[in-house]
User: Fold this.
Amino acid sequence: MTRKTIVKKSKLLDNKDVSFEYKMLKKHTYIDLFAGCGGISLGLFHAGWHGLFAIEKDKMAFGTLQKNLILKKDHFNWPMWLPQTEHDIKEVMKNYRSELENIKGKVDLVVGGPPCQGFSMAGKRNEGDKRNKLIDAYVEFIEIVKPKMLFFENVKGFTIGFKKDATKEDTRGKAYSNYVTKALKKLGYNVEAKILDFSEYGIPQRRKRFILVGVLEGDAKTFFSILEQDRKGFLQKKGLKQKNTIKGAISDLHQKNGDIDSLDSKNFLAGTYSRTKSNYQKLMRKEEAPKIPDSHRFTNHGDETVTLFKLLLKKAERSKRIDGDERKKYGLKKRGMTVLGENDPSPTLTTHPDDYLHYLEPRILTVREYARIQSFPDWYEITGKYTTGGKQRVKEVPRYTQLGNAIPPLFGEQVGLALRKTSAYGKKHTIQN
Assistant:
């Protein structure tokens, strides 16, 4: 053994980060940026990927990820140089730049996309939203770490330019999707992007998202071909149909099944399980499901609200948003609401739980029903406040918001499997050429 090798090894041992260095040598390693409550990481975990660390700014969202994927599953091999807590991506790059530079070119994959509220078509699109500027931080992180592959997700509105003049038609600026694509190509990535509807991939929700994949070796188009080709076989192995309904997702969580005092909230009731009624429910309850559903707390609606909800269940069209004149007709005070159709997928879940009325019962959905529709298994506990309001909405990420922002793990698993094949194909193609 040479003196150089001995010095190298002793430095490694002095840092006491041998396990992280060892993990770096493994295949299929990734970093999760803007990780939220851990949806994509859970999917990648099931697809055989090894997490290195996750960056998430919000304390509540990171708390959910930490409880499930670090404390329960020990999924991440967290480096000792990065405190295991919530982080702002810009602060990480500022304070740990040399550590990030040390892993440049060694990480297989970076996943994640910046918070989507400023781009969303469901809320108020705001080009001035500070969160939109995180795009620059994302590109900078990719430049520092230079992963072999990247997976980027955002709302459909990410592809639409903001209006320069709200009073005129056709005055839109460049879409952020164009900016990101151009920046990543400049860094040497072959990039391909598409709008995908997650309801086509077994998720009981019509959720259209901008998906971008970048690779240093091979053709990024390969990813989308593999994802589509493997979809049917993947879902068959899970015992699922390609299209799943909201009833098939949550009918074992009805309030009529019975309720108990909530375990985590005073003066609230929580639901219990009935027997499973679909393969989707069996899948969600398959692994270590609790006896009492987690986060299945019912909202305390007033009598007037319950009366209105009963009227909407009786009269309103299903799976269609109630707004405009129809909203006035029913005396609906909020800007809009959708009565869910039991035999349809859910519309895109937003961070506002009162946007949707349960298809059978005069109430809004619970956090656990949100999690089910987003394909989080029942063992996955959601932590933090249930809701927040006012100015705190831009500062805090409570349970409903965590799930409304998440990438469905069932889709994430398909992504992980397709990325592994894309990586293998890219290497083979590069060697042959």
In short: The chain has 16 helices and eleven strands.
